[in-house]
Amino acid sequence: MNNTNKIKKKCRSVRLIISDVDGVLTDGGMYYNENGEVMKKFNTKDGMGVEISRKKIKVVLMTKEKSRIVLKRAKKMKVEKVYIGIEKKEDLLPEICMTYKISKEEIAYIGDDVNDFNIMKQVGFSIAPNDGNKSIKQISDYICETNGGQGVLREVIDLILLNKNFKNSKLRNEGK
Length: 176
Fold this sequence. Notes:
- Strand 4 (58-62), helix 3 and strand 5 form a beta-alpha-beta unit.
- The chain is of the alpha/beta class.
- Helix 1 (3-13) packs across helix 7 and helix 2 runs parallel beside helix 7 (152-163).
- It has one domain (3-173): 3-Layer(aba) Sandwich (Rossmann fold), CATH 3.40.50.1000.
- The strands form 2 sheets. A 6-stranded parallel sheet has the order 5-4-1-6-7-8. It has a two-stranded antiparallel sheet with strand order 2-3.
- The two termini are 24 Å apart.
- The chain is 38% helix and 15% strand.
């Protein structure tokens, strides 16, 4: 099976996307103001991707950071759930599978760095941003054309929806 067919097959089985935050939904930068408050820059393309996929694929965010900013962004994006302060992300897989009544093979995970390694080895479809850590890119089923913070989640959602053959006028109008 060539790589294109392998990707199509993996996309067709995805029912849930779990995305890391820093380095995937953001460029990994953290901005501090004079009061020491951290700010993060998110890309609106990812929010539109979640909106487009809402009735077809669930999206969950998972991050090691304990960040109110992430909670606010998740609420605005209307993702299914957000997990913050998670050290060992792979430990949540049984709970997630039970909650959503899915298998690990039906999960896509987007990660960019070594703390994503173990969970990425356990899911059905592993994805890295173009500028992800080298070791993560080596174990990924798919490496995005997009860098972290530039619409990685949207690229993945578009890829999955198109390979699932969903007839979505918003995607067709973009010529994808």
